[in-house]
Amino acid sequence: MNTIDVQGLTKRFDGFTAVDGISFEVGEGELFGLLGPNGSGKTTTIRMLVGLSRPTAGRAKILGFDLSFGITEAKRGIGVVPDSSNLYDELSARENLLFMAKLYGVPKDVREQKSEELLKLFGLYERRDDRFGTFSRGMKRALTIAAALVHDPKVLFLDEPTVGLDVVAARSLRELISDLHGKGLTIVLTTHYLEEADLLCDRIAILVKGNVVEIDTPRGLKRRAEERSVIEASFGREATDLVGDLSARLPGAEVVLLDETRVKIYGGDPSRVLEEIFEFSKERNLGLNAINSIKPSLEDAFVRITGLSPTVMAREKGGKGR
Amino acid sequence: MIRDDLRCIYLIAAKDMRTYYLKPPAVSWGMVFPVAWTLAFYLRSPSNFEDLVPGLIAMTILFSTTAAEAVVINFELRLGSLERLLLAPVSTDSVLLGKVLGGFLFGLLMTSMVTLGTALGLELHPNLSTLIPVGLISLMVFSSMGALFSVLFKEVFEAQTFLNLPRFLMVFLCGVVYPISAMPSWLQAISQLLPLTYTVEGLRAAFSASPPSSFKGLLILTVFLILFILPAMRMLRKRFE
After folding, report:
1. Which residue from B11, B79, B89 is facing A102, i.e. has the nearest CB?
2. How high is the mean pLDDT of chain A?
3. Where is the domain boundary, A201, A218, A235?
4. A50 contacts in B (CB within 8 Å)?
5. N or C: which end of chain A has fewer CB within 10 A?
6. What are the entry keywords (chain A) (predicted)?
7. Is A51 near chain B, with CB under 8 Å?
8. Both A155 and A85 in a single domain?
9. A192 and A69, same domain (yes or no)
10. Are B11 and A76 a contacting pair at CB < 8 A?
């Protein structure tokens, strides 16, 4: 039996369809990623699955409980890390964990022991009596995850867990997620960081405008991108306005602007693409710095499947693709 | 299931007491303000201070329950910490009841202190069988009123500002300071529509020598409780649809 079974899940707000009849299953112990840009419906999907929003249509089962009438039972087995660290500023780290454990009815001796264990695991034991409000963003995130684990859930939902964290904190958090996965926890992770999804997930569902456009393993998704060549070119000066002209010279290929000076060209005849880039750079005096034929990444697969630029996606969230 | 909800209601109330109520802003609005207000009237006419006691207690009930209640829900909605509570196996209604209970308990603490202080200081002997039910139901009514204002408005300052309108209207029109019988008939009619009128009536009865039956007043206060708490529950549920 699947741990999570979603069929035709839909959410509409005043005529706007945020999630449009999506279906997917998550197996026991699987780390499943929901990947997509802002507004693709990731968070709305998670909110419906954890009982914070009522679906307009469709159904979902978690741990065998149908959410339309068994949400309270399902919640006992679910841990949720929302996209913001929303514990109580006035309570200490330890008090926050104990309060959450009490809400889930964890017996006194177990909750004391579990809180201590989690504070040690997340490196917060020394700060256990400090107020949550005094913590750094990374520490707040870590404690928010600890709070989601205090009742020993079987399923963990992580909504954009590394958003707003510095590189080091994000890396250690990813290691922790990986460890939790290793311990057999079923995890649903939403992210717009392609690298994060690639690194962590067993399978990924790509969401665009409320629809699941693809579900596969990271490897499977990348394999699709391998069907066509990927060439990256880096120029010495800004090429933003010239993408249209370059595209016109490369019929059958797709030119995607990575940043002001870098482009990626998907598909087309590789030798012709290389020739045209050299020619184009010379004509427009762009000063070609580097040109590489590269092995397709998940980012390339994402571009191929969605037609979206991954850089634009990262910018939308106010962060950088990492 | 009911046991889980009851446990969560208690935990939320206890947490709110600690994080919001037992703090200077709530204490000053809940107790210092009614006491200062009453002292102002006492200084004007010190001889009949005993007459002001029921009004003082009524004001303490009104201001202590609504002091933080009117802001805690939308404050937590803004921070996202109310959602944190809803992730636990607990219903939205129970979360709201926990919030109302928090206001009730804080109000009970403040009101008990004011009542005991004035009763002992002035050697008054209120009828407890009238005082306690009127006090308890009134605490629930005004805590629910605060909760309703909290879910009616999205911004914390809006809830607090709009709540001042009925609060001060009630202070003037419900017999707290001026007797209702001395008001023009149209103001008397308005006062009958305000819950604090029945709280003051009940408390006056408890402090008078031969208290009349306050059953009717308790019944009317119960109706106000239902009128405040059911829409508050419904509106909070709607926010998570």
Report:
1. B11
2. 87
3. A218
4. 87
5. N
6. ATP-binding, Nucleotide-binding, Transport
7. yes
8. yes
9. yes
10. no
> Is there a domain that residue A322 lies in?
no
Are both A157 and A281 inside the same structural domain? Answer: no
Which sign does the torsion angle of CA A169, A173, A179, A183 carry? positive
Average pLDDT over residues B154-178: 87
Put simply, the chain B residues between 82 and 121 with a CB less than 8 A from any chain A CB are 83-91
Quote the CA–CA distance of B227 and B229 in Å, as a whole number. Answer: 6
3-state secondary structure of A260: coil
Last residue of a domain, one of A218, A234, A268: A218
Residue A291 to residue A283: CA distance in whole angstroms: 16
Cβ within 8 Å, pair B80-A82: yes
Model pLDDT, residue A146: 92
- Give me the pLDDT at residue B212, please: 62
User: Is A202 found in the same domain as A102?
Assistant: yes
pLDDT band with cut points at 50, 70 and 90 for residue A312: low
Residue A201 and residue A257 in one domain: no
Q: Is residue A277 part of a domain?
A: yes
Query: Which of A72, A82, A87 faces B89 most closely, judged by CB atoms?
Result: A72
Smallest Cβ–Cβ distance between B87 and the set A50, A73, A105 belongs to: A50
Measure B81 CA to nearest chain A CA, in Å.
Answer: 5
Whether residue A227 is found in the same domain as residue A210: no
**Which pLDDT does position B173 carry in this prediction?**
92
Range of the domain at A75: 4-218
Domain co-membership, A214 together with A290 = no
Residue of B nearest to A82 (CA): B84
